[in-house]
Amino acid sequence: MTTLSRRHDFVLIFDVTNGNPNGDPDAGNLPRLDPETNHGLVSDVSLKRKIRNYVELARTGQDGFHIYVEEGAILNDKHRQAYVALRPDDPKAQKEPKLNPKDDAEAIRLRDFMCRNFFDVRTFGAVMSTGINCGQVKGPVQMTFASSVEPILPVEITVTRMAATNEAEKKKTAEGADGDQRSDNRTMGRKHIVPYGLYVAHGFISAKFAERTGFSDADLDLLFEALVSMFEHDRSAARGEMTTRKLVVFRHENALGNAPAHVLFDRVKIGRNVDGAFRDLDDKGLGNLAPARKFSDYMVKIDQEDLPSGVEILDLA
Amino acid sequence: MAYGIRLHVWGRYGLFTRPEMKVERVSYDVMTPSAARGVLEAIHWKPAIRWVIDRIHVLEPIRFQSIRRNEVGHKAPAGNIKRAMNRGDLEGLQILVDEDRQQRASTVLVAPAYVIEAHFELTAKAGAEDTEGKHLDIFNRRAARGQCFHQPCLGTREFAASFALIPPDAPLPFRDPQAETADLGFGTPRDLGFMLWDIDHAAPGRPSLFFRAGLRDGVMEVPGPDSAEVRR
Question: How far apart are CA B4 and CA B51, in angstroms?
């Protein structure tokens, strides 16, 4: 497999309808908010988790596509056994490092072993404590916090449950009940939702770091596939409807890049759709407009004019 | 100072973790010299050169926000990886995140923007072909075109840094007059206390080096590598 030879930067645009894209553990699982602007946030680690989960689903047990930072039970122990059978000549080859233990060369072997086998180590990196060398692998893919394009309004929804958790709770509710059958045994719960939010995340893929971890062109395709489809496999009661709406990739001709990332990101412009016309989000005239509740309330424009030479725009979703 | 450069860096968030508060991370008020060095090295670095930060201009008011995230509690143990390599089998090697979870808060800087003033020195590894002019040219060319080895960041990798080269004769970027408060050392100098200067990667045990940081009219002066102001 050839390693990635060109730098990429990407803009991921996704939305949420009546769901909580990323809860804030500091605020009782309320959707994350920037307290100064009320724009919603989704942390980088949240998005990376979803990429890992997608790859785990899409490439279960395949050589080289294991996930190091796993969620939940190990479902593919069986596949791993097959993996052992597939590489019978491995033990012999892998015994050699014993000759030169505890030095940088071995640390590099350990690192390469992890990169070769685990997609997420190859992509995002991992911290490995290998004694002499602290063995930190920096992955080529770097993602930032996603933030909503307009302020969001988190709504608290109270829900009820018709069953009690235990006997004591049942008794307590029965004592306080005024005879209404329906209110017996009921427990109240809370859900926090964002009625609608359009979020933008930026990502960077360094070709030079890809050389070090062996991140290949095929890995890049898988990463983009994951970015487009990851929400389709992350349905839950809390999330509501989340969808990747756009993935705009800037492909540089050069490994180091042909233009500053922030200049390229500025080419992706998001505005409100007012009767089919594009209006900037900071347009003062938007004040009377109803809040956005669907993707078609927004317009995404990609400025293709006068691209810096050596930069190509790929519109992947 | 003939080979000095100035780089404008900015981003939505920054996290320059104080070493004494690194479990629940709290950022320094201002970018540290070692973080600034990291930004420059992300654009251009070779073993033949060593970046030296001269001063850091603070362009925006210093503001903080708290972000709490689910994080993993452990690093990858080398012993386990070695055993798996020898066995030729990956069983039990992965980390189960929901069994090894820590919730940690980070106190991060909001919308930081800086100008890094720096120069480089040639190291003992410099060969005959390593002239100062060559490396300066490479850096200036890359920074002006937005090229980088990897996208630089403001402290941690999730907080990406945008950067722009400030040509030698160009003025500094605009600073909002409202930011010119005592917080940034306008009027009276502001003491920032002891700040990490850098980590001495050459010495055994890699000790941290500190200096007494201060802001005067929005500028933090950074002592040179051989200065007595750098404490061990």
Answer: 10
8 Å CB contact of B81 and A98: no
Task: State how far the Cα of A73 lies from the Cα of B15, in Å rounded to an integer.
Answer: 33
Evaluate whether A198 touches A21 at the Cβ level (below 8 Å): no
Element (H, E) at B136: helix B132-145
Report pTM. Answer: 0.84
The tokens of A124 are what?
A: 């995002």
A-chain residue closest to B72, CA distance: A69
- State pLDDT tens for residues A104-121: 777 788 788 888 889 999
A153: tokens are: 């309004």
Write out residues in chain A with pLDDT < 50, as ranges: 73-88, 90-101, 132
Residue B181 burial (CB count, 10 A)? 14
Q: For residues A24 and A217, what is the distance between their CA atoms, to the nearest angstrom?
A: 35
- Those residues whose C-beta lies under 8 Å from the C-beta of residue B126, and which sit 6 or more positions away, are B48, B49
Q: Does A36 touch chain B (CB under 8 A)?
A: yes
SS3 state of residue B113? strand
Q: Hey, are the CB atoms on B148 and A32 less than 8 Å from each other?
A: no
- Closest by Cα among A253, A161, A142 to A206: A142
CA distance A257 to A254: 5
List, as one string, the DSSP characters of chain A.
-PBP-S-EEEEEEEEEEEE-SSEEGGGTTEEPB-TTT-EEEE-HHHHHHHHHHHHHHHTTT-TT-B-SEE-SS---HHHHHHHHHH-TTHHHHHHGGGGS-SSHHHHHHHHHHHHHHBHHHHHHEEEEEBTTB--EEEPSEEE--EEEEEE---EEEEEEESS-SSHHHHHHHHHH--S-GGGTT-EEEEEEEEEEEEEEEEEEE-HHHHHHHT-BHHHHHHHHHHHHHGGGG---TTT-EEEEEEEEEEEESSSS-SS-HHHHHTTEEEEEEETTEEEETT-GGGGGSPPP-SGGGEEEEE--TTPPTTEEEEE--
Nearest in space to B10 (alpha carbons), one of B163, B116, B165, B175: B163
The CA radius of gyration of chain A, in Å to the nearest whole number, is: 24
Three-state DSSP class for residue B168: coil
Q: Which two tokens stand for residue A207?
A: 């070709």
The pLDDT assigned to A176 comes to: 63
CB–CB contact A43 B159 (8 Å): no
The structure tokens 């002006």 sit at B144
- Which pair of structure tokens corresponds to residue A3? 């390693």
d(Cα A112, Cα A230) in Å, to the nearest integer? 27
Token look-up 């690192």 returns: A111
Classify the C-alpha dihedral B109-B115-B120-B125 as positive or negative.
Answer: positive
Read off the pLDDT of residues A177-216 as tens digits, 9 standing for 90 and up.
Answer: 565 555 556 778 889 999 999 999 999 999 999 998 999 9
B chain contacts of residue A45, beta-carbon cutoff 8 Å? 69-71, 158
